[in-house]
Design brief:
There is one protein chain. The chain folds into 2 domains: about 250 residues, Rossmann fold; about 210 residues, Glycogen Phosphorylase B (Rossmann fold, 3-Layer(aba) Sandwich), CATH 3.40.50. The strands form 3 sheets. Strands 5-6-4-1-7-8-9-12-11-10 form a 10-stranded mixed β-sheet, sandwiched between helices. The protein starts with a strand and ends in a 10-residue tail after the last helix. With about 475 residues, it is an alpha/beta fold. It is built from 16 helices and 18 strands. The chain is globular, with a radius of gyration of 23 Å. Bound molecules: 6-O-phosphono-beta-D-fructofuranose. 6-O-phosphono-beta-D-fructofuranose binds next to loops.
Length: about 475
């Protein structure tokens, strides 16, 4: 037993090693979870347990504390990185949970690595948490942790949040270890999802596979109740607006437009380079709009920012080659000298540069084939402080259930995507502002701090009624 009152367990730590020549420092790692959780963690006696993103020991430079949050690394060997992270998490669960856009691979060796690594996370959490502490477990890499942890420490209050979609029963049933995963999650007191549909997919599976009684929001496990619900994640609206108001960020946005040749309209895509993001479908739609004359180089330009991700995975390598081929075809056919049709950047950008890009873009294209939430859509909306700009959004992103004022499309339907882009380009300013104001109101009301606190309040409520005198939970 440890002495931390709040324990966050996530596959990645909020820090990663940054190497410049022979110098090693540690900086904030990719993903927005740390900014989401910092406010709730800083005010409590909290620790974050996670993988540092590299194999083997972390060495003496590892920071034991990051901005007031204690850090505890869980180490992976090279085989575990391959079998647990690249294998079971990202080549079995990731595609299966994203509509099987790529065929999931079912490999028993990977499954054993998943069990072993989840057990290591659970053991570390058990050693770190104080009596009766809250443990908040995150995401698809760690679905066995809730049950493993409850077996070790029945006194803990355990919450689990899934950041990615949870598939419908027909797909989930393909998984050879489906029952173990559902039972793993049911170890939590509260299981949270991005959208209500995912929550009910899970509750139905729990009833069907484990034979439990209950409703879509409460599952009964022989005397112990597990609450299930939707907690749509969001962005740090205050920080986004503050950066968007910064004169240097605004000047940079003007500079970007000028570097792009001051076109009539800038279309923007910002994604991790991932086959779930629908980048190729989006580029095909843009290509056809160049072909039919709706768009023309010099007057219009698309900027596609593709952030490198999971580069060791052959699916991601193939996706990169495919996109780069597609972009060069579009530019080959439709660019003018000095005026590309598409600017493609395969790199990460700083937060300020990202906000400048959002400010420079008239039309934001967020067209994933399936996405748990998609925070780019919400970031764009909150960066548009003058309430201009149009958001074209896939109905298969979790964000679509909240952002009804966007131009919603089925990304598989090229004509619908083209029509939405046309609509965005032709939209009068009154409609544009009305839509953007509506979107901004929604995101501002449900920002990331509210997401974190509503999850923790729900966990408190769920467990308050159940804490027995001796502190043991069953
Ligand atoms: O969206 C799920 C997620 O795991 C995020 O938490 C993370 O930022 C992103 O995918 C990239 O994941 P990885 O840790 O594999 O780089």
């Amino acid at each position: 037993m440890g002495d931390f009152d709040l324990v966050v367990v996530a596959n990645r730590l909020p820090v990663e090693r940054l190497t410049a020549g022979t110098t090693t420092t540690w900086g904030i790692s990719p993903g927005g979870l740390v900014s989401a959780l910092s406010p709730v963690l800083e005010s409590r006696n909290a620790v974050w347990i996670g993988w540092p993103g590299e194999v083997g020991e972390v060495g003496a430079s590892f920071p034991v504390n990051w901005e007031g949050i204690a850090l505890k690394p869980v180490l992976l060997s090279e085989d575990e990185r391959d079998e647990f992270y690249l294998g079971f998490a990202n080549a079995t669960l990731w595609p299966l949970y994203h509509d099987a856009i790529r065929s999931p691979t079912f490999d028993r060796t990977w499954w054993h690595a998943y069990v072993d690594v989840n057990a290591r996370f659970a053991k570390t959490a058990a050693e770190t948490a104080a009596f009766g502490a809250i443990v908040w477990v995150h995401d698809y890499q760690l679905q066995l942790v809730p049950k493993m942890l409850r077996d070790l420490r029945p006194d803990l209050r355990i919450g689990f949040f899934l950041h990615i979609p949870f598939p419908p029963r027909e797909l989930f049933m393909q998984l050879p270890w489906r029952r173990e995963i559902v039972e793993g999650l049911l170890g939590a007191d509260l299981v949270g999802f991005q959208v209500p549909g995912a929550a009910s997919n899970f509750s139905r599976l729990a009833r069907h596979l484990v034979g439990l009684r209950g409703t879509d929001s409460l599952v009964d496990l022989a005397g112990r109740q597990v609450r299930v619900g939707a907690f749509p994640i969001s962005v740090d609206t205050g920080r986004l607006m503050e950066r968007a108001r910064d004169p240097a960020v605004q000047t940079r946005a003007l500079q970007i437009r000028s570097d792009l040749g001051d076109p009539e309209a800038v279309l923007l895509g910002v994604d991790r380079l991932d086959y779930t993001k629908g980048i190729d479908h989006r580029i095909m739609a843009v290509k056809e709009l160049f072909a039919d004359g709706t768009l023309s180089a010099g007057r219009h330009v698309m900027v596609q920012m593709a952030v490198p991700s999971r580069e060791e995975d052959p699916h991601y390598q193939r996706e990169r080659e495919h996109l780069e081929q597609l972009v060069s075809e579009v530019n080959g056919e439709f660019a003018d000298v000095g005026h590309p049709a598409i600017h493609y950047l395969y790199q990460s950008v700083s937060f300020d540069e990202l906000i400048s890009l959002y400010l420079a873009a008239d039309v934001m294209l967020v067209t994933p084939l399936r996405d748990g939430m998609n925070l780019v859509a919400k970031e764009y909306v909150m960066s548009r402080i003058d309430a201009t700009g149009c958001l074209v959004l896939s109905e298969f992103a979790g964000a679509a259930s909240e952002l009804r004022g966007s131009l919603l499309i089925n990304p598989y339907d090229l004509d619908a995507t083209k029509n939405a882009i046309r609509h965005a380009l032709e939209m009068d300013k009154t409609e544009e502002r009305a839509r953007m104001r509506r979107l901004r109101r929604i995101v501002r009301r449900h920002d990331v701090h509210r997401w974190a606190s509503s999850f923790l309040v729900a966990l408190d409520e769920q467990t308050a009624s159940e804490t027995p005198e001796g502190g043991q939970r069953h």
